[in-house]
Amino acid sequence: MKIIDNVIDDEYSNYLNKIVFEKFPWYFLNTSAYENEKIDFSYSFYHILAEDNKDCSNYSQIFYPLILKCLSLTNLKDCFIKRARLGLITKFHKKIVHSPHIDYKEPHSTILYYLNNSDGDTYFYKEKETDNYDVKFIGNYKKNRMILFDGLTYHSSSTPCYNNQRIVLNINLS
Length: 174
Known about the structure:
The chain is of the alpha+beta class. The chain contains 2 helices and 11 strands. The longest helix is centred in the middle third of the chain and has 13 residues, at 60-72.
């Protein structure tokens, strides 16, 4: 696991924040991670920027410099972007840690980039057991922070209680 702060300059970071907070098309998802979520109030919003190395959004080019910067900060060579997806979770009156999951079953790497400051941390787990997960690490949510990890590591998002939203760019690489 690799954590890098101050991934991009403040001007570009603030520009991206302005875009996602003003007139940005978000799409409703009944769960935070996958269709078998067992937790109530786990809804979220998403926006797919790229899938299978192809742009899927009119906003892809705006985020492309960020994606390239994140890739340049890894030691991964010849990466294929399986998916680049923005995720939005809104404030809730109590902390809810969503169900642990992996994004894809085949080997891959994942980058999480935090667009804003929030209290909706990311939880990483030692391994998957039958409904029993041991937390290995809590990725504190901080604007302009990137976390690179093995995509087969189970992880989960959580709801913010004090901030209005948690917005993450999730990049899956194979």
